[in-house]
Amino acid sequence: MNFLQRIIIDPFESFYERFLTFMPYFLTSLALLIVGIVLGGLLRMIFLRIFRAVNLDRAAERLGLFEMLVRGGIRESLSAFIARIIGWLTFFTFAVVALQTLKIPTVEQLLERFFLYLPSVFTAAVILLFGYIFSNFFGRAALIASVNAGLKQAGMVGRFVKLTVFVLSATMALEQLGIGRDTVLIAFAILFGGIVLALAIAFGFGGKDIAKNYLERNVHEGREEEETRDDIHHL
C-alpha cells in the first residue's frame, strides 16, 4: 500500500493540486485573449471610421503618402493600414498581459527580456518598413529614368537600386538589434565595395571604345589646330 501511495497516488494528487492552482490563471489568461481579440477588432473599426471621417486618405493623397504606400507594396489605404496596426497592437498588449497572468517563471523571465529588447525591435521594424517602401520607390524611379534615357539594362538598374537601398536598411536594422554588428558592417562594406568595383570594371570595358574615339577626336582636332596656327605663322 505504501508503495502504491508513493508511486501512483501521491504524484496524481500533486498533479491535481497544481492543476487546480493553475486553472484560474489559465482561464483568466484565456479571457484576456478573447477580450484582446474583440477589443482589437472594435478599435480597428472605430479608428477606421474616425480616419475616414476626417478625410485622412485625401490628405495622404495630397501629401503623396498614398502613392508611396502603393509603390512600397501596401495596397490598402492609409487609414485602413493605421487602423489595422492599432488593432494588432491592442491584441498584442492583451496577449502579453495574458502570458504574465499564467505565473510561469520561465515565461515571466522571457517577457522581461523581451520588454528590454522591445525598443530595439520596434526601431528595427520601422527602419525595415521605411527601407522597403523607399527601396521600391527609388527602384521604380531609377527604372523610369533608365527607360527614358534609353538604357538597354533599365530593369537591371532598377533592381540594383532597389536591392541596394533595402540591403542598406536591413544592415541598419540588424545593427540596431545588435546582431553581429561588426560582422554585418564588414559584410555590407565588402558587398557594396565589390558591387561598385564590378560596375566600375564593367563601365570601363563598356566605355573603352567611347573613350578611345573621344581621345582620338580631340587629339586629331588639336593637331589640326596646331597645323593651322603654323600655316598662319608662316604666312
Give a short summary of the structure.
By secondary structure, the chain is mostly helical. It has eight helices and no strands. Helix content is 91%, strand content 0%.
Protein model, in words:
The chain is mainly α and 235 residues long. It has three domains: 21-103, no CATH class; 119-178; 180-227. It has helices spanning 2-53, 56-63, 65-71, 78-101, 105-149, 154-177, 181-206, 208-234. Helix 1 (2-53) runs antiparallel to helix 4, helix 5 (105-149) packs antiparallel against helix 6 (154-177) and helix 6 (154-177) packs antiparallel against helix 7 (181-206). The longest helix has 52 residues, at 2-53. The model has no long low-confidence stretch (mean pLDDT 75).
Annotate the secondary structure layout.
Blueprint: H1 2-53, H2 56-63, H3 65-71, H4 78-101, H5 105-149, H6 154-177, H7 181-206, H8 208-234
Helix pairs in contact: 1-4, 5-6, 6-7
